[in-house]
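Handoff note, outgoing to incoming analyst
You'll be picking up this chain. Sequence as last confirmed:
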Amino acid sequence: MSGGPTTGDRGGAEHGAHTDFSDAMSYGDYLGLDTLLAAQHPRSPCHDELLFIVQHQTTELWMKLVIHELMAARAHIAADDPGPAFKMLARVARVMAQLIQAWDVLSTLTPSEYTAFRDHLGRSSGFQSYQYRTIEFLLGNKQEAMIAPHRHRRDLTTALEAALRSPSLYDEAVRALARRGLPVPADRLERDWSQPYVAADGVRDAWLAVYRDPERHWSLYELAEKLVDLEDAVRQWRFRHVTTVERVIGFKRGTGGTPGVAYLRRMLDVRLFPELWDVRTSL
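Most recent structure output, in case you need it:
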């Protein structure tokens, strides 16, 4: 882990630190900091616009990691190698905690401050984040219509269509249940993956068997709880999102044309792993 400047540092050279980077890779080189720190381009003279840009850029960086971890976790579950997936899902839940906390920073933006530069955003909106859409598809919230804002970019459309038509993280978890000998309805094992997942009593009953005998089904039990942790974090992120938006713009329409708060509130009702929540009532 790298160490930054500390109070009272009299210069790294006297402590044996390497200081000549004329022919060596530096910290800034490794991280591409020249490019990264030059990527903020406020469109207005308003002081507060930089906060808005940095907030969303850092969110996109965290989302890149979330996608990296979710895709790897899904592959491990599909290969009946759930151990590494547990660590990956736990990491994603921690990333979500960072994203939840970030809303506290954005909420320092008052309605007056945001209004001062809002018109400079044009039609751009977080609704158009292709990484966010990829995460939704990986988690099973499949809606083909949501690819529309990206059809001007063939590369993005191709990647999103691939995510849409592949089994979600939860689809692979359900298939893992069947491979472990638990009775799962056949129509949940092979289906049109581009369609939203619909809860099934048979899947709930399979998870119920896991929860009633966790020692016998320990890896599935642990997988279930990691998925619940993840959805819990996603729900908290969505709640903080809608609360922050209402705090800053009230019930105005979003810059991308969505109903704003009304749309975000509907997202609070989306259940990603429904049987894992239903099973709690059945236990």
